[in-house]
Each structure stands twice: as C-alpha cells, then as structure tokens.
Amino acid sequence: MESRRLTVLYGSQTGTAQDVAERVGREAKQRHFSTKVLAMDQYPIASLIHEPMVIFVCSTTGQGDEPDNMKVFWKFLLRRNLPSNSLCQLSFAVLGLGDSSYQKFNFVAKKLQKRLQQLGGTPLHTLGLADDQHDLGPDAVVDPWLSTLWNKVLGLYPLPPGKDIISQDVLPPPRYKVQFVDGDKHSINGQHVPTDSTDPSSGPSQNNPFYARLVSNERVTAQDHWQDVRLIKLDISGSGLSHVPGDVVMIQPPNLPEEVQTFIQLLRLNPEDQVVLQQNDPDVPLPPTLPQPCTVQHVVEQHLDIHAVPRRWFFTLLSYFADNELEKEKLQEFSTAEGQEELYSYCNRPRRTTLEVLQDFPHVTSTIPVHYLFDLIPPIQPRAFSIASSLQANPNEVHVLMALVKYKTKLVSPRLGLCSTWLSSLNPQKDDVRVPMWIRRGTISFPKNPTTPVIMVGPGTGLAPFRSFIQERSTLGIGGNVLFFGCRNKNKDFLCASEWQVLVEKGLLTVYTAFSRDQEEKIYVQHRIKENGAVIWDLISNQEAWFFIAGNAKQMPTDVQSALKSVLIEHGNMGETEADRYIHTLEH
Fold first, then answer.
1. Does residue 485 sit in helix, strand or coil?
2. Which of 60, 146, 72, 152 is closest to 106 using CA atoms?
3. Are the beta carbons of 458 and 246 closer than 8 angstroms?
4. According to DSSP H, which parts of 60-180 are helical?
5. Looking at residue 495, what DSSP letter applies?
6. Which of 123, 207, 233, 558 lies at a 20 to 30 A Cα distance from 370?
C-alpha cells in the first residue's frame, strides 16, 4: 500500500540524533511501514514534495547551529522563492535533541518546525524537545513522544488487514550480511584507499580523509600542571586543503590498541580474518569508509566505537542473544522505560564504555553473532577542533590546541577521551605518523575589514580560533586585536605566552589576563572585562569593534555576557532592556 510509506530524516553531529532516528525507523518497520532512514543531506530534497509522511530528528550544535549533515537541506528549505503550499501534502513531526544548559536550547528543531509549517506541512504531533540535562537524558522526552506519535500515525494509516505490530521480542534482521573471505585488494597498511564510489576530486572529506603528516606534538602546559594541553602541528602539503580563521579541522581517531586487543579476545575473533559486507536492506547503504574486503582487526580498530558509552538499543539488542538468565534479565530491564534510571546509574553517569559493558556480560559477549556487530556498535565519530593557526603565518600547516581528556568517575580506571588520548600518544620523532583529517567551514566569521578592531575572549583552549585570527592579522601587520585570556596560573597554563609577548611589543596585540588561582580571590575573564569597561565601550561604540567569545565552560559565555552588559550600563549609560537589546544586535 503506497501510502504506508514513512521517511525518517536526521541532522546529527555526534551520532545521538542518528541513533534516535534509527530507533524511529525500527519502530516504523515493526508497524509495517516501508521505511527509509537518511541524513538530511543524503536525501534528494526535490522528493520532499512527494512524501506523505516524514519524521525529522535533529540536534542543535554550538550556539544554535544546525549539524553539518543537514546544512544543505536547511539552506534549500530557507529559499525565499519556495511557494507557501510546497509541502501541503506532507504530514510531519519534528523531534529535537538539545541541552538546556545552552542558551539556544533546541534552536534548530524549533526553526525547522516553523519553516515546515510556513511551507504548508501539517504537523502530526507537537514539537518534541528532548533535553540532555534531564536525569534520564533525552529518553525522558523521546519515549512518551514516540508513543503518542505512533498512536496518531496508526490513526491515519491503520495496520494492513491481518497484520499486528511486530513484537519487541522478535529479533530484527541485521543491518548487513557479513561474509568471511580470502584476500584483501583495497587496503594498504590499514589505510582506506578510495574505491570508485568516492570522488577524490571533491577534496578530503569524511569518506575520503587526507592523511596529514604529524609534524610535532608538544605539551604547552607545565609538567606538574593538572591539565595536559598539546599544540599539535599537521602538514597538509599536497592535500589541496585551505582554511581561514574560524574553520574547524575534523580528525578521525582509531580505537586504542589495548582496547582493540581486549575486544578481539573477548569476542573470540581472529584479527586476521577477512570480511566483506553486503546490503541486507536496499534502504541501508554500506558504510562508505570501510574497505571491501577488510580484516577483522581493521573493522575493530578503525570502525566500531567500542570506547563510546553504549545507548539503550545496545542493551535491547544484546538481550536477544543472552542465554544466561541473570544477564538476560538485567539486559531486558535496561531496555525498558522503567529501567532507565538504573541504566543511567550503571552506564551514563560513570561513563562506562561499550567494551567495559561487554566485560560485565561475559556469557552473552562470547555468543554475539559477527553479523550483528554493526547493529550493536555504531561507527567511531570524527572529532572537531577549532584550527589554531593561519596559512599566512604557517603555510601548509594546521595547528590544534587540544586538552587531554582524562577524569575520574566511580569506576576504577580513569575515563579517557578517545581522540585526545590517541593524538597525545603519537611521536613524530619515532615514526612517519599520519592523521586522517579534513576541514569544515567554521561557525565563527571574523571581520574582513582590516581596520575593524576585534575583542576576543578565549579562556583555556577556547583560545584556538583567536590564535588563528591573531596570526593572520599580525603576519599582515594589522593591529586592533584585543585578547582576554583566562587560565589558572601564569607559570603553568598561560598558553602561547611567548607568542603574545612578541606581538604586544610590536603594538599588534593587547592582552588582558586573568589567572584565577594566582591569588586568594579567584579572578576570571569577566572580572577583567568589567575592569576595562571604558576601553571596551570605546572600541565597540566609537570603532565598531566585533566581540567574540569561545571556550568550553558552559557557564563562561553567560558570565562574560553579563559582564559586557554591566559595561554597557556603566559606560554606555544604558538601561537593562537597552543593554540586552544592544547585546542582541552584537550577535551576528
């Protein structure tokens, strides 16, 4: 029946929205819908006018930005020349995944809902706004939202005669067929060699990364400082890549060697075995970055995200293979809505990895069918870093300022960031080390006019995009650069201090520092902004300066904004409302 067609489109930056979209797709198939699940930018957007029903799942990144894999789709939807009845045949629902500790909570989902309605689409359901900050995570909203959605959908499109909803107890077919074969013709030293399906002329991308040579990997914080921050330099000669200040480098990390070995032993796999993947569902394409055929070692090392915290579906799927009663009971409990609090305490709060969970369930782990590994464990996601260098100052190079992620939870071994642990372990003096990477346009746009002063607030590694811009301008002899930098101690984590000293002496840069732990009372960048309010007001009001904030602390942008507001009130003689409005106009 043609009308029982449902398309799920997602915009996902870290994989969470994709994960939820795939859940929607599974639940649609259980209700006998012909279902496709695609990233918005993989979808032929001209077909949208022929779709009877689409469920959109999208996250919000940065300061209210849409994820990379929905940018083209969103740009098309915003076209002014689209008739207001373009989507009059479309029934849709939008589910947003956000984080309420950010100012623009679920901004993308709200914008998408509004635009689809403007184009004549009919909402099937109220806008769903899931929140990462909720004690139970996004599922606290997703579960009831989906339950209501299916009631409404089945009201419009009843089940075909004689059909029931396929029980949750029935194991769905695997995503791919996995065959063991001999020989490996497309893989060189474990690096992916693009096949015909990847167009190298389009430049390096996630499906075709450039393997940049690691030039140096230098610790830039004191050896006795609590945080290890690295300045990593990559050689991009011959890549055809270019970048401007504000751009982002995407790096694709592999799994850590000892974890790969443990996983292979735990599942009793032979790392030398060769596998070929085949489609099991015409609507599910093969993973574009996996060579065909490739070794089990390559699949585990380069593809399966065994270091990530597993999601709920992982436990549901694992429960189908469990014979041990205790393990099966526990896995089934973790799969239910009622078991989410316990799952959160077991898995999310302590940041327990997929590998550690498998070690906790030894019976079922030893029986997992190989062809379900790609359903159980998602692919490793690339990591994004603001580029910390300028091509003007460092031709053919990309610099990254990266803090090593390492922290304690209630688990015995410390939690380690996959990409930062891998990158910090690389030694270019020992080997010819290569890092798979590509470049993405950033969300920070600096002024093109050389006479425009720029005020930059960048504590810690938030400094990265500003180092790029300062290098760019100072190499061209352009001044008017004002940097507010904050860290703990002048002698331990004042990043790039010697670089700034030279530029300050040349009159190309003004630096205001806040070393929070070098005196009894803590001093942060927002305090320095208030102290230098007259200078800031003069720059903004008389010289039309641009004001930028970058950094990791969630609270920091809010504190800086409130400091800026007090500067406007005190030095610009504004009232509260006027100051708020003025800050709003500064937000480009």
1. strand
2. 60
3. no
4. 71-77, 107-118, 139-156
5. T
6. 207
Closest C-alpha to 373, from 310, 436, 324:
310
The 10 Å Cβ neighbour count of residue 199 is 11
Nearest alpha-carbon partner for 68 in 148, 142, 13, 5? 13
If one compares 430 and 351, the residue with the highest pLDDT of the two is 351
Residues 6+ apart with CB under 8 A from 50: 89
Nearest alpha carbon to residue 90 among 77, 109, 79: 77
Nearest CA to 192 among 289, 288, 273? 289
Tokens of 353: 């990895």
Pairing of strands 274-279, 294-295: antiparallel
User: Which are the contacts of 86, defined by CB distance < 8 A and separation ≥ 6?
Assistant: 49, 119, 120
437 close to 204: Cβ distance less than 8 angstroms = yes
Q: What pTM does this model have?
A: 0.89
E strands, 392-527, are: 397-403, 406-407, 415-416, 434-440, 454-457, 481-487, 509-515
Range of weakest confidence among 276-285, 503-512, 544-553: 544-553
**Type of residue numbered 31:** R
> For residue 487, what are the CA distances in angstroms to 66, 204, 469?
30, 35, 20
* Residue with more model confidence, 431 or 587: 431
Q: Which residue has the tokens 């795939």?
A: 22
Burial of 76 (0-12, 13-18, 19+ CB in 10 A): middle
